């Protein structure tokens, strides 16, 4: 059986303050507060710009032993370069301090733009450029595609051949959802039950996701991140799913 970890996509949101985060909690304590209530968090600031080694070290120190920090790959690679000629940008990304996370380093998420369609040769070059270690720490990669051209046996088999995990993306009909196991990681991003980035997940829906997670854990490690942060539902839904999985 694989392990199942549940958390949120990011943690620094104004709408959480005074609600999930109690009034008066200083901002530098927010990650620690969240980390006491979930198993993992997705670092998404790394998507927008290269982070500093001191930041990765600070996040590692703010979380308890056994916690895992997933890292979102840079949009310069996925959205601006669109995976073309990215060997040097990938090297810079992984040289920016991810090794400071040490044993807390989780999967690295590569989120593709919705306008990027499947190209076998392009993806082969990209997969080959991804490192499998940062310093002495192993790295596992997952791909969140947003075009239906990836929902084919060819694309999924290529992911299996390169040991790339398929992201299960729940996005109220906005992007395709492929529930395929293509590596030893199943990575789930829950973007909203009925409204993208905003709506919470009903109890019955959390029950269903818990059952899916148990099934995937029979053959892989499972990481689940709630991205419905606009109205502050993400941490509550994460705790709700986590509680169900512990029953």
Structural account:
With 247 residues, the protein is α/β, with parallel strands linked by helices. It has a single domain, classed as Protein of unknown function UPF0759 (TIM Barrel, Alpha-Beta Barrel), CATH 3.20.20.410. The protein is built from nine helices and ten strands. It has an eight-stranded parallel barrel. Strands 5-6 form a two-stranded antiparallel ribbon. A hairpin with a 2-residue loop joins strand 5 and strand 6. The protein is globular and about 50 Å long. The mean pLDDT is 96. It holds the Pfam family DUF72. InterPro entries: DUF72 (IPR002763), UPF0759_sf (IPR036520).
Q: Keyphrases for this structure?
A:
9 helices, 20% strand, globular, 247 residues, TIM Barrel, single chain, alpha/beta
Q: N- to C-terminal separation?
A: 16 Å
Fraction in helix: 25-40%
Strand content: 15-25%
Radius of gyration equals 17 Å
Class inferred from helices and paired strands: alpha/beta
Oligomer: single chain
Major β-sheet profile: 8 strands, parallel, barrel
User: Order of strands across the biggest sheet?
Assistant: 1-2-3-4-7-8-9-10
Strand segment count: 10
Order of helices and strands: EHEHHEHHEHEEEHEEHEH
InterPro entries: DUF72 (IPR002763), UPF0759_sf (IPR036520)
């Amino acid at each position: 059986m694989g392990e199942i970890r549940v958390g949120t996509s990011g943690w620094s949101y104004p709408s959480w303050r005074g609600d999930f985060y109690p009034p008066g909690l200083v901002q530098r304590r927010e990650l620690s507060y969240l980390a006491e209530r979930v198993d993992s968090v997705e670092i998404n600031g790394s998507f927008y710009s290269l982070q500093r080694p001191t930041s990765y070290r600070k996040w590692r120190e703010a979380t308890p032993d056994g916690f895992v920090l997933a890292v979102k790959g840079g949009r310069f690679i996925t959205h601006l370069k669109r995976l073309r000629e990215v060997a040097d940008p990938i090297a810079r990304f992984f040289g920016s301090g991810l090794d400071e996370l040490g044993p807390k380093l989780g999967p690295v998420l590569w989120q593709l733009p919705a306008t990027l369609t499947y190209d076998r040769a392009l993806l082969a070059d990209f997969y080959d450029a991804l490192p499998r270690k940062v310093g002495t720490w192993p790295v596992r990669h997952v791909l969140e595609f947003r075009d239906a051209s990836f929902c084919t046996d060819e694309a999924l088999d290529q992911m299996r051949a390169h040991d790339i995990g398929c992201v299960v993306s729940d996005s109220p009909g906005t992007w395709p959802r492929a529930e395929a196991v293509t590596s030893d990681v199943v990575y789930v991003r829950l973007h909203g039950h009925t409204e993208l980035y905003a709506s919470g997940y009903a109890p019955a829906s959390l029950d269903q996701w818990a059952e899916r997670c148990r099934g995937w854990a029979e053959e892989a490690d499972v990481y689940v991140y709630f991205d419905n942060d606009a109205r502050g539902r993400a941490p509550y839904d994460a705790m709700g799913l986590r509680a169900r999985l512990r029953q």
